[in-house]
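Practice problem 4.
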């Protein structure tokens, strides 16, 4: 079945008790037990599972081509749960251009817990090979990466991880299941901040881990999810399900606009560099063509001579709101270095752009005016 069809139907069914076409939001935290001790629909208590969360998890597993999914109250809670499931004393390899919250979790929260972290440039798989240790349990990939839109060869890195019996997980937030399929490329776990493209409307926080196999590791993930309770509420699951129905349309439109905008910006005055995997000038454009069916709605542009000029360009934009986050219907721009603060790896003149659903000609005109203004 095509992913557009899955996005509309996966996890949805006509409500058997009311015939409602649109799913209900089940707020009940508890479920009645039958005389024989069983639970009619398998639900017992909402921290363990509930109808809205079960539907979302079914839907996400189908979208990513996995066997099961576990959802969380944020993308970071999903990452945290995976690190907890990997266990103390493990060595983890992560890319140097990962979402800064991911590195912060692994280093500051899990460091004192005994997690050993190696941060490497994963655009060259040899760096991963060199970093592998006997206790390497997890190789974390983020591609395209945040905020430099680096592209990592998922298949090559997953193979390397597997030579040492390590798990390979991919943060697929920017790729989305529409454009990139980590589990088909050999990764064991696909992770999402559903806050971004899957929710798609900047109104719900959430995260997910989707598993290629029902492994022992995934069972530990589910156990931590159910016991720790960093779970999304029924309403949040419902909102995410609603967002997913239009995910394919949104992502295709945002990708097409991002490519057009990137091409224009590449030739625009006061632009030092444009980072977008769809440009032939991107250092890993060939890998992006191989492992993605489109290049996504995110791009970064280095514009202006310094931080002050770059911030001035951002503030002259009218259609791009200066705000963090991404993947919503509205275009956003963010001066990443000042948001990440000390220790950031983002260049001082870098603006990260999330392309929304506005007409691309309006977005291009807005950027051109801001650059020359
Ligand atoms: C936003 C984001 C996260 C974290 O998700 P939250 O829901 O904010 O916790 C992780 N990875 C990437 C790539 C992101 O963009």
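Answer key:
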């Amino acid at each position: 079945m095509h992913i557009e069809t899955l996005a509309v139907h996966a996890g949805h069914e006509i409500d058997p008790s009311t015939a409602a076409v649109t799913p209900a939001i089940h707020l009940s935290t508890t479920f009645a037990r039958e005389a024989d001790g069983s639970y009619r629909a398998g639900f017992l208590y909402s921290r363990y599972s509930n109808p809205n969360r079960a539907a979302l998890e079914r839907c996400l597993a189908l979208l990513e081509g996995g066997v099961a999914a576990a959802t969380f109250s944020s993308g970071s809670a999903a990452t945290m749960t995976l690190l907890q499931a990997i266990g103390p004393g493990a060595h983890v390899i992560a890319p140097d251009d990962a979402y800064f919250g991911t590195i912060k979790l692994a280093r500051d929260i899990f460091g004192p817990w005994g997690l050993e972290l190696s941060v490497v440039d994963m655009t060259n798989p040899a760096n991963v090979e060199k970093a592998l240790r006997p206790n390497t349990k997890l190789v974390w990939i983020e591609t395209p990466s945040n905020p430099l839109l680096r592209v990592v060869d998922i298949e090559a890195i997953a193979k390397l991880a597997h030579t040492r019996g390590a798990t390979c997980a991919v943060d697929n937030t920017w790729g989305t299941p529409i454009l990139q399929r980590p589990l088909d490329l050999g990764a064991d776990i696909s992770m999402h901040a559903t806050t971004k493209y899957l929710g798609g409307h900047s109104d719900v926080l959430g995260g997910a881990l989707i598993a290629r196999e029902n492994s022992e590791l995934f069972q530990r993930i589910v156990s931590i999810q159910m016991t720790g309770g960093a779970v999304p509420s029924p309403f949040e699951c419902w909102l995410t399900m609603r967002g997913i129905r239009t995910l394919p349309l949104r992502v295709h439109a945002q990708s097409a606009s991002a490519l057009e905008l990137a091409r224009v910006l590449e030739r625009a005055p006061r632009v030092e560099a444009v980072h977008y995997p769809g440009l032939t000038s991107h250092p890993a454009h060939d890998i992006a063509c191989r492992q993605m069916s489109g290049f996504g709605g995110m791009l970064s542009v280095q514009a202006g001579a310094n931080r002050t000029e770059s911030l001035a360009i951002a503030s002259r934009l009218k259609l791009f709101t200066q705000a963090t986050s991404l993947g919503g219907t509205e275009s956003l721009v963010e001066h990443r270095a000042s948001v990440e603060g000390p220790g950031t790896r983002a260049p001082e003149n870098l603006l990260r752009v999330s392309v929304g659903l506005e007409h691309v000609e309006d977005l291009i005109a807005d950027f051109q005016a801001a650059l020359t203004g």
